[in-house]
Write a structure and sequence with these properties.
With 205 residues, the protein is mostly beta strands. It has one domain (33-202): Jelly Rolls (Sandwich). It is built from no helices and twelve strands. It has strands spanning 24-35, 38-41, 55-65, 70-77, 87-97, 103-107, 120-126, 134-141, 150-160, 164-174, 182-187, 192-202. The protein has an eight-stranded antiparallel beta sheet, with no helix packed on it. A four-stranded antiparallel beta sheet has the order 2-11-4-7, with no helix packed on it. The protein starts with 23 loop residues before the first strand and ends with a strand.
Length: 205
């Protein structure tokens, strides 16, 4: 294997590396300001959710509910939310309180789905204080496939309403061989007071 050198130039002066490719491509950013939901629909407002990328990544940043103790959820649709996709999922969590007196790691049977079209939890009982929010990442695999079910996985860090640090971990699949064309994020029974979600596509290697 040959060694590539850059003629003793400092790394700050290198503008590009031959053969390097950009694997994570920004597609769309949505920002909430007291909105009922943030929804990404293929073909709407420059959103892409087709075979252009095999993996799509949603990064949700400082999602703050407009009221206290609300659950951050997401859902999927094959028809721009005329209906919701049927899903089977798992959800488990770890937490630690600010006083350092309570910890746990557990499976949460109340936040999983078994062949349900309901919204899937990303983080539960998120605090509504001005300094509380949720941030994390959802990966959606090959949503345009018409052969396989649509797998997804998410991990969320959030400040819970009783001043606990929570880590929620979720995975599952949409049990449909129709292409997913829309993804929606919302809080349970409250608007999204503020927050940003960025959609990216990951190219094939």
């Amino acid at each position: 294997m040959s060694i590539v050198t850059y003629n003793n130039r400092s790394i700050t002066n290198i503008s590009a590396i031959p053969g390097a490719t950009k694997s994570l491509t920004h597609i769309k950013t949505l920002t909430a300001s007291d909105d009922a939901n943030l929804t990404f629909t293929h073909g709407s407002s420059d959103v892409v959710l087709d075979s252009t990328y095999p993996i799509y990544v949603f990064k949700y940043i400082n999602m703050h509910p407009a009221a206290d103790s609300k659950t951050l959820k997401f859902n999927l649709s094959t028809d721009s939310f005329s209906s919701e996709a049927t899903k089977t999922t798992t959800f488990f969590r770890a937490y630690h309180d600010e006083a350092g007196s309570a910890t746990t790691l557990s499976y949460d049977t109340g936040e999983d789905l078994g062949q349900s079209t309901g919204d899937q939890t990303l983080g539960e009982l998120i605090g509504g204080d001005n300094d509380q929010s949720a941030s994390g990442e959802l990966k959606l695999f090959n949503p345009s496939s018409t052969t396989f079910v649509k797998h997804f996985i998410a991990e969320t860090s959030y400040a819970q309403q009783a001043d606990y640090a929570f880590r929620g971990m979720m995975a599952g699949y949409a049990n449909t061989t129709s292409a997913i064309n829309s993804v929606r994020f919302k809080f349970s029974s409250a608007n999204i007071g503020s927050g940003t979600i960025k959609l990216y596509g990951i190219k094939d290697s």
